[in-house]
Amino acid sequence: MTRPKAPNITRAGSEPQGSGFSKVFDFLREQLLDGSIRNGDRLLPERELALQLGVSRPIVREALRALSMMGVVEIRERVGTVVCRPDVSVLGDVFAFSLAQVPDAIDDVMQARIALECQAIRLACQRATTADIERMRDALDSIEATVDDATHGGLADFDFHLALVRASKSDTLIQLYGAMATLLTRSHRDRRQLVGDHHDEAMKRTVVEDHRHLLQAVIDGDEDAADQALRQHFRIGDDLRRQKALAPSRPAAAPARARKTKETTQ
Ligand SMILES: [Zn+2]
């Protein structure tokens, strides 16, 4: 067990930090960030933590319970409080709760997705392994095979982009992408339900070709081409959103329908 250093959370000149919870939380975060404690380490007993932090034991206990619900620690009977690495699904839940009441949250998440994927594809150009390429190729085959099927097509599309982000080998990008997955999946599903099945051959070809270009750029290791192809892939959704914002209640005109459908398969 790593014994924590004396806490250094009372900052001279600053306002006293509010609740006992934030004292415990700040303490734990700083210890984790500077590497004093790691996954699997046992924390000091409640009594000693309370003394060190200058808060009561019930407050320490309450804070540790809250932290355990976040998956940051695990309270084990007869063992004590053990530091954990939270599962990324916790982050997804937090995203979903925090964004559930934000207007246009899905559009906002899309902006984050664009930022994240554009960096991911650049890294993928440098780091993708044969296995990553195979995963993307499999997903591309599925996109092609399910282009007439909204539900499976959406899943295949999601798999392709997930494989792309995984190929970045950036743990943080992968985790953030996973956290957004719930909202992204919902957005795909809702839009697909709105649009329904389509029979636009040109649009179907574009969907497949877009992904083929992305894969080829990664295989070629051409970061600029990859970035450009990805932005182009996302831009169609932006155009549609703009049209929708300008005429929210007007039914989609015929030429826009293909683009709308395409958006669901980003
Ligand atoms: Zn796509």
TrEMBL record:
Region (Disordered): 241-266
GO MF terms, alphabetically ordered: DNA binding; DNA-binding transcription factor activity
Domain HTH gntR-type: 18-86
Database matches in SMART domains: FCD, HTH_GNTR
InterPro entries attached to this UniProt entry: GntR_C, TF_FadR/GntR_C, Tscrpt_reg_HTH_GntR, WH-like_DNA-bd_sf, WH_DNA-bd_sf
Pfam family of the protein (one): GntR
CDD domains from the UniProt entry: WHTH_GntR (cd07377)
Keyword Transcription regulation attached: yes
Listed Low complexity bias regions: 245-256
Keyword terms: DNA-binding, Transcription, Transcription regulation
Entry protein name: FadR family transcriptional regulator
